[in-house]
Amino acid sequence: MKSFFIDIFRRNIYVLLTALGLFLTGYFLNLYFSGDTSVAELRNSIQSFLQEREKDFERVTRDTALLTELSKMQYSKKELDKIVEKKYGIFLYGSDSVGSGLFLQFWNDQRSQPTTALLSGPDTSSFLQLSNGQYDYIKKTVAGADGRSLVAIALIPIRWQYYITLSNLTPEFVDNPAAERRVQIVMSPTDLPVLNSQGVPLFYLEKKPGYQAPAHIWPIPLLILLGLLLVLIIIHNIAHTIRERWGAAWGIGFLISIILLLRIVIYLSPGLLNLRQFDLFDPTIYSSGIILNSLGDLVINSFLFCWIIMFIRRELSDYTIPQSVHRWKNWLWMSVGLALLVTTTFLFANIVQSLVTDAKISFNVTNFFSLLKNYSFIGFIALAALALGYFFLSQVLFQLIGYLIRSLSIVLYIITATMGLLLLTFIQNRDMVELDIFVLTWLLGYVWLMQRRIFFDLRFRLNVSEVLFWLFIFSISISAVILFETRKMEQSTRQEVAERLGEQSNPTSEKMLSIYFSYIDNDFLAQIFSRFRDPYSNQLMKDSISNRNFMAYQSKFETRLYTYDGDEKPLFNEPPISYDTLNTTFTVQGKNTDIPDLRYVERSFDKFTYIYKKSLRNDTTGKITGYLFILSEPKEYKGDDALVPELFHERSEDLPEYYAIYNKRELVAANGDYPFSSRLMDSQVPRSDFVHVKKEGYDELWHRVSDDNFVVIVKRDNSAIEDITLFAYLFSAFLFLVALFRVAALLIWSRLHWSQLKTYWQMNIRSQIHTTIIFISLFSFVVIGVATIIFFINRYNRNYQDRLSKAMQVMVSEVQSKLSAPGSYGQDGRLYYQGSRSEL
Fold this sequence. Notes:
Elements: H1 2-11, H2 13-34, H3 36-62, H4 64-71, H5 77-84, E1 89-95, E2 102-107, H6 116-120, E3 124-130, E4 133-143, E5 149-160, E6 172-173, E7 183-186, E8 193-195, E9 201-207, H7 219-246, H8 248-268, H9 295-316, H10 327-357, H11 368-373, H12 376-400, H13 402-405, H14 410-425, H15 433-451, H16 464-504, H17 512-517, H18 522-528, H19 535-549, E10 557-565, H20 579-589, E11 591-592, E12 598-604, E13 607-617, E14 624-634, E15 658-663, E16 666-671, E17 690-695, E18 698-704, E19 709-716, H21 719-750, H22 754-760, H23 765-819, E20 823-825, E21 831-833
Antiparallel strand pairs: 1-2, 1-5, 3-4, 4-5, 5-6, 7-9, 8-9, 10-14, 11-12, 12-13, 13-14, 15-16, 15-19, 17-18, 18-19, 20-21
Helix pairs in contact: 2-7, 7-8, 8-9, 9-12, 10-12, 10-14, 10-15, 10-16, 12-16, 12-21, 14-15, 16-21
C-alpha cells in the first residue's frame, strides 16, 4: 500500500504543485482585495484625482485674463473647448453695472449648480452634498483683468448619487465605479481620510461589510477554477491507477464516490466555496429542483457527468456482458440497459425544456446583445456537456448489452417504444406531451443509428473524423427542442398580448370593476352618507373609498367621487359639476356594461371614461335621499421608470413590433409601418379565437375579441435564420467543449511532465492535417463572428444616433416655439410665459 501512494505522488507531483500554487495565489489575491491594503489604494486613487483637479482650478483662477474673457463671453472656440473638457464644473459669477447682486456669467457643466446659500457664504473649500451626489466645493473671489470682482466656484464631483436609482442612474464613484461595492463615504473619522490639496480632510472612507472580492475580481475565481480542475485530474489519475491494480469496478467506484462526496459536501455546506456570491449561482436566473438549483449547478453537474461517463467509457474498453445460458438473465440485463437509456433520454429532454421555459436565459439568437446579458452562452456550454455525456453513456450501454440485443431486430424498437410510453404514463405534465412524443421518436431513430454502428469506434481522444457526424446530429436535435419550446412560449406570449389589447379596446371586459363596485351598495351608503354632508368628513370619506376600492385601478384611471343630496344639490364636490351634467352623461352618452349602474363613454379606441351612478333610497319611505357618482377617467400611464428621459426609452419587448386593432371591422389603431387593411372584408375575418396567417415573410396572429372587434399581431418570420443561427451556436459550443476535453486529456496523459508534453506536440502527417483543418475552421468562425458582431454594434450605434438626432430636433423645435410665445418680465427680473403648466 505504501508503494501505491508513493507511485501516485511521483506520477502527479507536478499537477499537485501547480494546483497548490494556483490555490495559494487565489488565496493571497483574495486577502489583498478583501483587506485594508487595496481599500487604502482606492482612497489614494480618489484623493489623487481630487487634488489634481483642485490644483487645475487653482491654475484657472490665477489666469485673470481668461476669467475676464469667459465672464464677458469673449472667448475663442479653442478656449471654450478646453474649459468644457474639464472633468469638473466651473461657475463664474459677477455683478451688474450697479452692483445689485451676483449673476451667473459662465459655466461649463450642466449637471449641477451652486445654491444661493453657497454664493452668500465665504471663500472656502469643503465637502458638499447636492441632489445628484457629493462634491468637493471650492469658492474663490478673484479680480478680473478689468478690475471687477468675480466669484469663481468649482464643483468637483466625487460620487454620483441620485434620488431614485435606475438602470442608467446608479450610484458610483467618479472615475472609479468599482469603489462603490467596496467603500462608502462617512463623516466620522476613520483610518481612511481623503485630504484636499491643502492637507485638510474632506471626508472619510469606510470599508463596506460583506464585500466578496471573488465576485468582482475575475482572476480569483479563475485561479480557483483551474486549481479545482487539476484536483479533478489528480482524482482521475488515482482512479486509473486503482483500476490498473484492482480492476475497473474499483476504479470506477472510487471516481464516482469521490465526485458524489464532493458534490454532497458543497450542497450541504454552501458557504465552503460561497458560490452564491456569483450571479451564475442565483436561483432566480435558473432553478429546477434541489440538484439543479442554479445555472452554475447545472454547468458543474453537466461537466462532472460527462467526465465520469468518459472515464467509464475509457476504462471499460471493449468489455461486453456475455450471454448467459439463463435467458432471464439476458433479458434482465437488456431491460436494465434500455430502461436506463430511455430514462436518461427523457431526463435530458426535460432539462433542455426547463432551461428554455424556467430560466431567465435568452435563446433569441437573432439578437446578439440579448445573448450577452442573460448567460445564454453558458447555457449552450451546459447543453453541449450534457449531450456529450449522454452520447458516451449510450455508447457504454450499447457496448455492454451489444451481444444481448444483436438478434432482436425489430423487437428492440418495440421494447424501447414500450418503455418510453410506460414512462410517459407517469409524467403528469401535460404541457410536455408533444415534446415527449418527439423525443421518443428521436430515440428510436437514434437507436437505429447506433445499431448501424456509424462511427461507433469513438475513443477518448475524440478524433475529428469520428466526432463531427455526432456533433452535427446533436446540434440539430437540441436546436429542434429549443426552437419548439421557444416558439410555443412565444405563441403563448403573443396570445396574451392580443387578449390584453383586446381588453383595452373593449370596455365591457373590465371585470375587476365589478369587484370594486360590489362594496358600494345601498346598505353601505345608508351608513356613511350622512358624513358627506360635512365638508371635512366629505373629503375624508371620498379619499377613503377611492384608496380602498380603486387603489389597483389608479395607475390607469383618475377616480373622482361626486355626491348630491336628495334635491340634486351638490355636496362639496371638487371640481364643481352639476347633477344635470353627470346625469345627462350617464343617461344619454353612457353605454351599458355587464355591471349594474356602470356605463362608459368612448374617448378613443382604447380609452373610456367610466361613470357609475348610485341612488340612495330611504328604506321606510322609498324616497331618494342622495346620489353618488363615481367618474373614472383614463390618464396617460408612466411606470416606475417615468423619471428616465423619454429620449432613451426602448420599446418594451412585451409590446409587438406591429399590431392593429379593428373596431366594427374598421382600423382604429395601428403600430409600425406594416400595411394593415383599413377595413376588413368577410374573407379576412377569422373563424376562431386565434388564427395564424403567413404572408410574405410575416406571421400574422388574428384574435377575435367579439363578432366585429379584432386584434392583429404581426411578427417577422425569421424561422430559417433562427434555425441556422441556433445550430451554429450549438455547434460552436460543441467544438469548444471538444477542445476543452482535448486539453484535459493532454493534462491527464502528461501529468504536466515537460518531456511528455514535448512528445505530444511531435505530430505525424495525419495529426498535422487534422490540426490544420481544425485551425482553419476555428479561425473562419472567429473571423465571421467578429465581423458579424462589429456589424451589429455599428448598426446599433447608427440607429440610435439617428433616433437621438431626430428626437433632439423635435425637442429644439418645441422649445423654440414655446420661447417665441409672448411673455413678460416679472418684478424679480424673470421672464414669464402665459399658458397652463402642462403646456409649458
